[in-house]
Amino acid sequence: MIVDERRTDMSNMPAKDVLKRVYGECEKSGERFAYLATRFKENFGDARVEFFTSPGRTEMIGNHTDHNGGKIVAASISLDTIGAAAPNHTGSIRVRSEGYDLIEVEIAAASSVEKKSGTRALIAGMIEAIKKFGYKIDGFDAYVTTEVIAAAGVSSSASFEMLICAMVNALFNENQIPLGDCARIGQYAENNFWMKSSGLMDQMACAAGGAILLDFSNDIKCEKIDASFDALGYDMVIVNTGKGHGDLSEEYSAVPGEMYQVAGALGVKRLCESTMEEFLSKIPEIVTVINNDRAIMRALHFYEENRRVEEAAKAIAGGDGKTVLKLLTQSGNSSWKWLQNCMSKSNESDQKVALALALTELYLEKIKDGCCRVHGGGFAGVILAVIPRDKTGDYVRYISGFVGEENVYPMQIRQTGAVSLGCEA
Questions:
Q1: Closest CA to 2 of 50, 41, 39
Q2: Nearest 5°: phi and psi at 61?
Q3: How do residues 67-98 score in pLDDT, each as one tens digit?
Q4: Is the pLDDT of residue 266 over 60?
Q5: Closest Cα to residue 93, out of 39, 37, 142, 156?
Q6: Helix (H, G, I), strand (E, B) or coil at 358
Q7: What is the CA radius of gyration of the chain?
């Protein structure tokens, strides 16, 4: 621990009006940041710290389409990762996450950090990307804590990446790093230091805030959508079914891999370069070429999901709640039946996602409203339920009887992305 001439300045705490704008209140959130300031001082000494927040994300519709040039409606959520940070002038980045040991990465030696070495590798990858992209970076200390569910499909890793990017942006780059480059910096770290073939959806949704329509057919296009389930009279409820994503790499890799197989049989690199009509006309010959019916089903999901995304974006922007619920239901059914990512073939008796969906469908049939779907990558992790606000408490009690109250998270779309709270004033 280095204690130097720096002094803690409590006047730098996030303003109440900023907290109200981001969180809808200032008491509970203010306590979180006061705790953060105390923990920073205990770990790094006195400093004039700056405070940061980065949300998790929800994928509303567009399940497993980005890798083949598809479209997605995603949004940031009210669960977030927060941090306090200050320059340390040591040439090293030092991060202490709540409940974990201190991680220190020397900026000059970041490229030599061992790959796949957890958060240390992730930070090193971001350092390398920031320098490659031509942005400034120097040493800083950070204390971080999070509400974002780990390994459950709400992008705890992307939330952390965009928090670190927000820190570098504010502390050293006068907040001039564009959102797209922040997302690419996080993606670079995951691709090259975590060795995970992630796209840009998670990072873009965490960085941008609110709801966004993403189109991956030509580089990446991002369009903000004015969306709020709260305005439609509904709450989102994330239900953690009890198993993380840690051992499912092969299942995830098979989804884009099989879609690429179909694309190759169509004579293109990605499915977005062909159409549903062309695909349907060639299914008999494609079946003989790849001999994989599941790949055919997954390609069908891709084309229909893209259609639904376009319709959902219009319905969301137009405040047409009934159409939004209908399309989310159709998307969830397609993920379950066509994409087939609601259970893992590696352990067919473990079907927690499918079971949580079945139990939720029984509840929705009873109240004749709302919808549910697998959330994120699937195979394990979480589901998303959209529940009428006057029934949210009842649903939480109902589903908590099966998964435990600690695994049920009512939330809303959050309009603020990954930012310095000082810059939000």
A1: 41
A2: -160, 145
A3: 899 999 999 998 899 999 999 999 999 999 99
A4: yes
A5: 142
A6: helix
A7: 22
